[in-house]
Amino acid sequence: MKPESRPPDSRHHRPEGVSDTTVEALGALSKALETAERARGALYDFHQLTGSADLALDDAVRLLRAAGHGPHADLVEREILGRNVIPGHWTFQIVEEYNATYYDVFRTIERQIRQELAEGRDHLYEAEMKAVRRTEGHPDHTAE
Predict the structure, then answer these.
(1) Exposure of 14 by Cβ count < 10 A (0-12 exposed, 13-18 middle, 19+ buried)?
(2) What is the domain extent for residue 52?
(3) From CA 47, how far away is CA 103, in angstroms rounded?
(4) What distance lies between CA 34 and its chain's CA centroid?
């Protein structure tokens, strides 16, 4: 996919001797990491939404008691409030384990491979795609 017009930013120049297939492979690896980043963000959404739901239960319990429904308030307080979302784990623990056992390893290996194969340069595939898709001279298609 070598473009006719290379990007001016040296951080995005393909190092000498790096093949099209290697650039494509690094692009696929980067895309996979970006997808894991999105999954991680969804996990943080899950963490925060579940925490917000748990905190909202305080109002539900208070209002059930105020309305004279003590046994129902007790049921919510005993069975839902502060409950583990999976055995032995609150959501923060799930986030921590994801980070430690998957995300951090993934990010480290992606960086290592990029360093070994492309002098650590990131987004080579996208930079070359940008160079190919630019309209020369158009103010909104500048290389930088």
Answers:
(1) buried
(2) 29-130
(3) 16
(4) 6
